[in-house]
Design brief:
globular; alpha+beta; 29 strands; six-stranded antiparallel beta sheet; 1058 residues; 35 helices
């Protein structure tokens, strides 16, 4: 019989056509593309590739008059049901629609389907076919895949699994919770409740980890009896349950491929499913109970009881309550002394029943592993049963799990054993953590045990599929430190550990944040299903705190705390030192401050995350971030220009403690000391009002603050000359920033002083302001700018979308052909890749640096004319990045009038060998020290430092200018990735600091710091002012044959708040 609540709605009437006749189906899609892209319709029918983009015959076209609208026609048999998506294809790469579920249509005549790429809405014109109403296996109109996917190969195309959806999107938690509650009320039997989960997954209703967590809670409560199961009059043998379990498992594995949080939740669903082993999927499973019910050595009444309460019940409507019935019967029969043969068979059946319901314990599961796994399993059981230390047990457990993990996707019994082993590992790690806490800290022996325990914990996380690669790398870093412990600890050694601990903490916190969001709807589901409120709370708390990663975090925090204590490292990073008063605010991300109404007296903002791209509103007086940031990042620089006090820490307890020292919405005073001490205290409303008045009256405040708060003059834009219409050498512009911007001029000046100052500088060429002002024009640009200006003036929430629309209007313009021709002709022979950089007249101004507001495009092939033009247009359009728009608006500068963007083009340095990007300030701006150079360094290219979009810490160094150049190492790097120069363009590469000389050899790190500081000091002397520089150190070759080069790509005067 059909599953309740899953019957399809009646189809809509269509025009009269003959089934089998051919119909033309037109496709129209609005889609932004890049040169070389092609849009195709790809889906379930052979005519559209059977989900293979390369085989689709429906390939859409566009031209200059219709772009970005693409169109085309396909022929299909009437009656064909199509599932499809629009796909952008370029060579062998394919970009699928990722924000919409499979589009579904039934062909019933000629018609046109019209849509926008990655937008769900789709309209039909002509005789048309309405979207498929509601397949028999779906709950929200999404189709189920054909066939029954199995864990062993032949998985359905990934398109069958809908793309991830965030909790805030339409149709997410509220609707999903309501659907589960409504369907559960209709579905009385365990089979139908299981089938609900299958239908939700296959029908495309489970699209986010939030919904997956709700499904986990539902199945857990069903399996534990908190949701009652009862017979519903149907007759379905256990093979039906097993089949549903097999299908659910297949879809869960697909979900697990999406990320750590999905893997975490999926692993907690598997134990709530029945077995789909071969003995339970046959037509008549569990026949032993039939033989038991017909034995001749038991009385008739017992036969009848077994037949009706177990045999018939199981073959009619099995549920977990049958185990209770069976166990009670066995216990009664034991007391009544039935024959040994009967009891033996009954006990065997009970084990089979537990196997079907996956109810066996850890030891029992270990006993039944295949023969090749028996040695590892017996070794572990021997340690466990023999009462060995948790260290020894955990070692044997890890050995067994390592043998299991490669096979768990194909063998359900091994998967369930692995999950049980993970649970037991949590217990063992908890015992070890307690031991480490109780033992006297700090001795080499204690450090050795702690690091060994951390490696064991990381290994367990890795085996569970959480942060697999990152856990393995951190474990190698810890192992390297462990190997050097023989000589005792040192400050540099402790810094290495602190960096590795910071990296490990990010694995923990990243998953924790995702899980907090994932389980957010579970209490609502529990309420809708009438689950006891305490039981719901316990469920959510247990999921968050009983994972192996929770134990990892305990070890890591202990390592971090003790390493920093031993090295006397500050627990805070001072981005901008000073004192500030304001009302306390809490945000998830720093960018949210632009969407909130800030208090007129100023705000002190606590946030979990900062991307590095933000522009701070002028009413933000202080910022505390729960992650580390480069002190010389663009965000940090802009904070100092505004005079905003700014501190950050990776120590979550410190962050929480500081926040709790105030009260959200209440006045407070924040103090951030240059040496890393951060404090906050509550103040009165009167004290806040006095501080706000003093800040407003302060004559030497930042330009942006003064312009907005007091209506004073905005920063004066750089001079603007638009006469030049052709490409120019940057050297010619060394003293003419009005032609192509101060960055281009500075590039020319760097070329001229490079030999004197002891560094290398790339040959630069500039596309002057005049080319941009003539090219970026027309009604489309004017309309986009006008709409954006209106949105800014009215504080509209559409500012971000309109800024993007303005960028698109600019990128639709053309670069003069002669400019591109001259650029290619002038580049040095052999130039393979170039950097195309911004150089605006709205940056590097007095009081406003503008650093990081605009885009640069790296790795452009100058022989690819379309790529070269696109790069120039992207730089021009970056006048309208959201951060640039916000910055100019906050500073009182115009949106576009009087704003111009030059383009600086430089051949990229060949990065053969080892590359270390740096930002150097010839003055220590945090400590206000003119006698020192402050340097931040990272492995790979410099975007990691400048943008601050990657969590982690750079190498931080302070070098005295006076000989012998004393070096003070403040921190070692903990970035997980370095941006490396690759043939196809920059790519992120995972860093293993256990093999990185900057982290393993202090003398090597100090020597590089001195060379960079020497260059920075000489550049400061040439410019006659403290300078902010970006560059790269190249190590070519090794040993005595190696050569080191310092390259500078740009320099600008340091801009500080007055």
């Amino acid at each position: 019989p059909e599953s309740p609540g899953l019957r399809p709605r009646p189809r809509q009437e269509a025009a009269e056509v003959y089934i089998g006749a051919m119909a033309e189906l037109g496709f129209i899609v609005k889609c932004k593309t890049q040169p070389g892209d092609e849009v195709r319709v790809v889906g379930s029918d052979p005519a559209i590739g059977s989900w293979d983009p390369s085989k689709s015959s429906v390939r859409l076209t566009t031209d200059a008059s219709t772009y970005p609208v693409w169109s085309g026609v396909g022929k299909f048999a009437v009656g064909t049901r199509l599932e499809f998506k629009f796909v952008v294809v370029n060579g062998s790469s394919a970009r699928w629609e990722s924000k919409v579920e499979n589009r579904v249509l039934t062909v019933s005549g000629d018609f046109v389907a019209e849509a926008e790429f990655d937008r769900a809405r789709m309209t039909q014109k002509g005789h048309g076919a309405a979207p498929e109403p509601s397949p028999a296996t779906g709950l929200n109109g999404n189709p189920s895949p054909k066939g029954s996917p199995s864990p062993k190969g032949n998985q359905p195309p990934a398109a069958f699994l809908p793309p991830p959806r965030t909790a805030g999107e339409s149709g997410a938690p509220g609707d999903f919770v309501r659907r589960i509650a409504e369907e559960n009320a209709k579905r009385r039997s365990w089979r139908n409740k299981l089938d609900l989960s299958r239908a939700l997954l296959e029908g495309g209703d489970v699209t986010s980890v939030n919904e997956l967590a709700c499904m986990q809670a539902y199945l857990t409560w069903v399996a534990s009896g908190q949701i009652k199961c009862e017979e519903d009059g149907g007759h379905h043998r256990p093979c039906a349950h097993a089949d549903a379990s097999r299908k659910i498992s297949a879809m869960l594995w697909q979900f697990a491929e999406r990320g750590d949080a999905e893997t975490f939740v999926a692993r907690r669903i598997f134990p709530a499913l029945p077995s789909y082993a071969e003995q339970f999927t046959c037509a008549v499973p569990m026949t032993r109970i039939r033989d038991i019910a017909h034995r001749g050595d038991i009385p008739h009444d017992l036969k009848q009881e077994i037949k009706h309460t177990l045999q018939n019940k199981l073959h009619r409507c099995a549920d977990p309550g049958d185990m209770v019935t069976c166990r009670n019967l066995i216990e009664r029969c034991r007391r009544e002394n039935y024959s040994h043969a009967f009891m033996e068979q009954f006990e065997i059946f009970y084990k089979e029943l537990k196997e079907f319901f996956n109810a066996g314990g850890l030891d029992e599961k270990c006993e039944h592993v295949p023969g090749d796994l028996q040695p590892a399993a017996q070794k572990f059981l021997g340690q466990k049963r023999g009462g060995s230390s948790p260290w020894d047990q955990l070692g044997a457990l890890a050995e067994l799990r390592a043998a299991l993990v490669p096979r768990v996707r194909d063998e359900q019994t091994l998967l369930l054993l692995d999950i049980e082993l993970e649970r037991y590992a949590f217990v063992l790690l908890s015992q070890i953590a307690g031991e480490m806490e109780r033992t006297q800290h700090g001795s080499p022996d204690w450090w050795g045990k702690l690091l060994a325990a951390l490696r064991l914990a990381l290994r367990q996380s890795e085996l569970s599929g959480t942060g697999v690669e990152e856990c393995a790398v951190v474990s190698r870093e810890v192992e390297a430190c462990l190997g050097e412990l023989v000589g005792g600890t040192s400050v540099f050694w402790c810094m290495r550990l602190a960096a590795s601990a910071d990296r490990a903490l990010r694995i923990c916190f990243a998953l924790t944040q995702k899980l907090e969001a994932a389980y957010r709807s579970v209490p609502a589901l529990g309420g809708a299903l009438n689950i006891d409120g305490h039981a719901v709370s316990v469920f959510v708390e247990a999921e968050m705190r009983t994972s192996v990663l929770f134990q990892v975090s305990k070890f890591v925090q202990l390592v971090m705390h003790e390493a920093k204590k031993s090295a006397k490292l500050p627990l805070w990073t001072a981005i901008s030192a000073g004192s500030a008063c304001g009302k306390v605010m809490r945000c998830r991300e720093l960018s949210e401050t632009w969407l909130k109404k800030l208090p007129s007296e100023g705000a002190i903002v606590f946030c979990d995350e900062a991307s590095g791209d933000e522009e701070l509103p002028t009413l933000v007086r202080g910022v505390i971030v729960a992650r580390d940031l480069p002190v010389l990042s663009h965000l940090a620089l802009r904070a100092r220009q505004l005079g905003a006090v700014f501190g950050c820490t990776t120590e979550r307890p410190l962050f929480d403690s500081l926040f709790s020292s105030g009260a959200e919405g209440a006045p407070a005073k924040l103090d951030v000391a240059a040496f890393g001490d951060v404090r906050m205290e509550k103040i009165s409303d009167a004290a806040l009002a006095e501080a706000a008045a003093a800040a407003s009256a302060k004559s030497g405040g930042s330009a942006a603050t003064a312009a907005q708060a007091k209506g004073k003059a905005a920063p004066k834009l750089g001079q603007l000359s638009v006469e030049a219409q052709g490409l120019m050498d940057a050297v010619e512009l060394a003293t003419s920033p009005q032609v192509a911007g101060s960055k281009a001029a500075s590039s020319g000046r760097l070329e001229s002083i490079a030999d004197t100052a002891g560094f290398k500088a790339p040959k630069g060429f500039a596309v002057p302001f005049g080319v941009m002002t003539r090219s970026v024009a027309g009604t489309a640009v004017e309309a986009a700018v006008a709409a954006l200006q209106t949105a800014l003036d009215s504080h509209s929430p559409k500012v971000a979308d309109l800024a993007q629309a303005t960028r698109e209007a600019v990128e639709a313009c053309k670069v003069p052909a002669k400019v591109l021709d001259d650029l290619v002709a002038k580049l040095p022979a052999g130039t393979e890749r170039i950097a195309v950089r911004s150089s605006a007249n709205s940056e590097d101004l007095e009081g406003v640096s503008g650093a990081g507001l605009h885009d640069s495009v790296l790795g452009v092939d100058p022989k690819d004319r379309s790529a070269l033009e696109a790069a120039v247009l992207k730089v021009w359009s970056s006048m309208f990045t959201l951060r640039a728009v916000q910055s100019r608006h906050a500073a009182g500068m115009p949106l576009f009038k009087g704003i111009a963007m030059g383009v600086l083009v430089q051949p990229m340095v060949s990065l053969e060998g080892r590359a270390y990007a740096f930002i150097a300030f010839s003055k220590h701006v945090v400590e206000k020290d003119d006698s020192s150079v402050y340097i931040e360094l990272c492995v790979g290219l410099g975007e990691t430092l400048a943008s601050a979009d990657q969590p982690g810490t750079p190498y931080r160094l302070v070098v005295k200018k006076q000989a012998p150049g004393e070096v003070r190492v403040l921190s070692l790097a903990s970035f997980s990735y370095g941006l490396q120069d690759k043939a196809g363009g920059p790519a992120q590469v995972r860093i293993d600091y256990s093999t990185e000389r900057l982290s393993t050899e202090k003398a090597y790190l100090e020597s590089i710091a001195r060379e960079v500081a020497s260059v920075a000091t000489k550049v400061e002397e040439c410019y006659g002012a403290p300078m902010d520089m970006e560059g790269v150190v190249l190590e070519r070759g090794s040993g005595s044959n190696g050569a080191r080069e310092v390259h500078l790509v740009q320099a600008r005067p340091i801009v500080e708040a007055a």
